[in-house]
Amino acid sequence: MDSRSSVERSSVEPFALRDVPAFDHECDVLVAGFGCAGAAAASEAARAGADVLVLERASGAGGSSAQSGGELYLGGGTAIQKACGFDDDPDTMFAYLEAALGPHADTGKLRLYCDGSVEHFEWLRECGVPFNPTFYDKPTWMPLSDEGLMWLGENSWPYNTLARPVPRGHRPAASGFGGGILMERLAAAALAAGAAAHTDTLATNLVLADDGRVAGAVARKYGKAVFYRARTAVILTTGGFVDNEEMLADHAPVLLGHGKVSDGLDDGSGIRMAAAVGAATRRMGVVEIALTALPAMVCRGMLVDGLGRRFVNEDVYPGHWSVHAVRHQPGPYWTIIDEEGFEDVPEPDRWGLRPRYVTETLAELEASLGMPPGSLETTVETYNRHAERGEDPYFHKDPKWLRPLKPPFAAIDPRAGFFGGGAGQGGSGVAGFTLGGLRTTADGEVLNGSGVPVPGLFAAGRAASGMHGEGYVSGTSLGDGTFFGRRAGRAAARTS
To answer: Which residues form the FAD-dependent oxidoreductase 2 FAD-binding domain (predicted)?
Structure first.
């Protein structure tokens, strides 16, 4: 059978090198995927002297990274932290992240990440990523302004008891979503370093030599098979698998029925291709979860479950209360706030949201929300009694956010999305992406089931299992992808 026709099959099984009739392109290092991890890998491999080709299934670089908020979790004493008046060090950064990304964070990778964070920040600036030396000191998912530094839960309980609070959310200089400018600069840096990009080209299968070494890949461009020879290594940076319903059902069913934080192309193809040559996976059930409630409102009121109960300190990083809600509490979930609290939220930080229900009494609000009679009344009465003394003995919310709630009361439904009838309306009010993937070394070598590297195969970004345990903080995905993408690029270039 001619290999060029058989590539049309849907199987991800590898092609034997001896069966490839001819290669259309050859390079030293072949990178599949041109998101943040692929751009970082391509840059470093090219800077190390390798001939680099990057395959991207879309018509340009970016992937899910370009559609993200653009935050990068960096610290240890970056120039931006110092300019904003904060003193940080790698040990303090590690102490926070080990807890926030846990339980069971990958401490080996995490230690490298924290120790190398300042250098990584400077590398990003060398790539042209701009950061403003300004600080956003309010709870939010993402500022709609261009401050370069923000809190990501470091100043909330229990994390402020485990490590000295220091903000580490580094944001490219963009108002609102900064993923676009981040990827624009990273892609340009990769091309400037000497890497070449083949767009509209989907990697479908790996090419395997008789000795088990990955020797290239087969791709599809406008329906035609294209064969790529990689003389030293293939690096998979193809993203996670949130857009693959079958893989979600098998590995991360908690995200079934919820929204996707992706560009629509995170289908797990790289993970599947690698598994077909014996690669092992790790922590495939670990996910990021975002409940589309607004932190600026939640911290001024309270977040309750479908039974009217609080379950977390509302000033914590919003990804934490999202996980608590979706994994452990009965829905639906509601932001409960009073008029004073709502009016205290600056207009830009409301993101266009308006309360769905407003009542003079909590009993009326309970009835409107379908809660058990007296449930919300009990929750608010307990909260108010302690708030009058500046205390929150159950959940340890910071006293600066504590204030007795007074009528009229309002309930805001996360299912409305962030724009009051925009994204999220009619949905679950929950979105997420996957964090598990291929098992790799700190240098991106893909390991098989015996813990032995698959020769010639590397991975980084969401195609790989990175430094995360069961927790997540904004910026650690882009940070992990670029940091370990760089290591994979350098290691791949050294492979012989």
So the answer is: 28-477
